Amino acid sequence: IGKEKFHKSQHWGYCNNVAMLVREDKPGIGGEPLPGQKLKAEYSMFPKGMGSDAPAWVAFDKQVLSFDAYFEEEVPDKNQELYRIRHCKIYFYLEDDTIQVIEPHVKNRTIVRRHRIPLPPPHEDQFYTIDHFNINIEVILYARRYKIIDCDQFTKNFLRKMGVRLNPPADRPDDPYTKERQKILDSMKPLRPYERIDTLKQFLEHDGQVLRFFCVWDDPESMFHDPRELVLHYYLSDDTIDIKEIIPVNSGRDAVPLFLRRDKLPKYAPTGLYQPGTITSRTVLNVFGKLVGNRGRYILDNRKTGAVHQEFYRDSDLKIGAVINVWGRKIILCDCDEFTKEYYRTKYGIEEFTPVTYKASPPPKPEKTFPPYTGFGSEEDSLCSCRGLLPKPPPKDFKKFMEKDRSGMESNILRFLAKLITDSPIDKDRKFIISYFLSDDTISVFEQVQRNTGILGGKFLERGRVKKPGQELFKSELSEYFKAQDLFVGARVCFHGHNFLLVDADEYTFNYMEKHANEFSMADIGVILKKLKDIAEPRSREIRQVFAAADPEHTKVIEYELFRNLIVSITDGVFSEHEIITLERCYSVREEYEMDLHFLLTVAQEQLKKNSFENFEQLSAVFVYNDREKCGVLPHEMCRTICKSFKLPLADDDLQALLTMFEDDHKQVEYNKFVDGLNWRENQIPAFQTIKVPLKNEDDSSGQAPSLPVKGIKYLPLLDDLFGKEE
């Protein structure tokens, strides 16, 4: 920092471009140090941690000397006073020797702004320093004489350390104008203090809190003497009340905004009109009567002699069942809201809030009857024409449609393999695919094509809702339709006179029903085990011996057909085929197939090409963006999430298998190789290598999706779940 950019005090010089204390103290007579020099040797002026070589603006930063002073100001324009005494404070800033003068009693009005003040003539080329200040001396600042009468304790200590001998403090003179003015103000005050009426506390505590009561007024002057329903609001912030009327529809009464405007409600009203000034918040007395000049002397009357007292309704007067007087109208409080109950329960300890019955219960609405179905259009459409003058189409469950509509490879279609229940040898071998659409509860039936049967096959039943058999055709109520819970393996259903037996289902149907076991009791393994336990628990030892006899080689696994026959014999045919299949799927041993990468890529490319998916560059860019470390690999779940966001037309199981094929030793997916393998545009597999197989969940009507074959059933875990582990 250069010398020219900072002011330096006269006590400070420069050393290495830094302001230093360079003043040398002169010795006393005989070469002995002066008392002040001894004091400075004993005490350090610098703050703790600051050496004597610290800059002034650092050593004395935020250190100010404060002096109490006053000056006389002439008043030439008034005869009542010749001068005024104005008290002030003089601040001396040690960091740069600047001075500021303020007047503290007039909102810190600045008399002299902070700056360096020159000495009076003939030394105007010099500035005031700390040596020019002491107690009980006069300083001249711009031709105005200030008398310093005292200072604070910090200033006294600092001056003593500097070796300054402090003078005794001077007396503070009184301002004659201020004394006279105070006498006038004191004479204007009453002999007794005013009564303090503080409503601010109540307002701040209860602002926005309103008690609400439901009332009734039996108007005797009305033509039919019908009760008038009212709502009373009590405002806790200022103890005011307003009342609103509940006007019924088509009552013939005018709709007015308020029955009673907000104000304090007197208990005994109406009592007549008072003269202006009769009702006041304070009462005064004329203690001397009329004196000279027709001027009296009044004081506040604390006893309120002759005051007119009015009683107003408070919160303690309002309760259920009470009758209040609203300007001559008797209104009954019948009920209140929950906030009002909690308020009275907390403040007054009231627990009884039984409402008052003031009107008879409304008569029951007559049941609306509809004419029977005419046979034209659907039943729902005919019913809508009876509900209003303007016919509307029957409403549809749009939320269910959006949730259960097909999304990607999630078809939300339950498919079952069915056969006709008939004695005809021609129809016995016919196979049907029954598809149930969860989005709108519709059913379609497709017949599989079989060679050399003489039956063409194809669409057997158009998609639509199917009524359950045995219902009356022309009736007023809506017919019942087949639901998803009515379809399961082993169920017998009748579609328009054709009886079907459901003998199997595809893998997606089994997975969906097991995933939503709360909707399908036939696929709820917990319900099935509880049902089986209730049947087989009395014969637990016998059943264990039967299963052990079925496994002579002690492999702990039995074949499915044998397992099915054992369950049927144990349950005496109570279990449906679907419940037995659910048990088999839960405790089955499935063969693990090692999937071929080339085969998976072939099937995936075929699906992507079929659905015209070509956003491979964007897919790769998203993978690179999520790879913060640029290492070329990403976690398995993150890659799956990214693929789902692009809505890849691949089944979830196939996608999981593909991602697993491209994992490294650390279970991280090499996304570049994964995208290159899917890119059927640049890395297309030759046509002769393509293997056409039906994919899982593919929306076709040609057959079932292949499922993993069942090798056997592990019966020991089943027995342990039913009867507990055997000792």
From TrEMBL:
One GO term (biological process): regulation of neuron projection development
The keyword Cytoplasm belongs to this UniProt entry's keyword annotation: yes
Sequence intervals crossing the membrane: none
Annotated InterPro entries: DM10_dom, EF-hand-dom_pair, EFHC1/EFHC2/EFHB
Primary residence: cytoplasm
Subcellular location: Cytoplasm, Cytoskeleton, Cilium axoneme
Pfam entry (one): DM10_dom
Single GO cellular component term: axoneme
General function of this protein: Microtubule inner protein (MIP) part of the dynein-decorated doublet microtubules (DMTs) in cilia axoneme, which is required for motile cilia beating.
Protein name as it appears in the record: EF-hand domain-containing family member C2
The species this protein was found in: Ibidorhyncha struthersii
Gene from which the chain derives: Efhc2
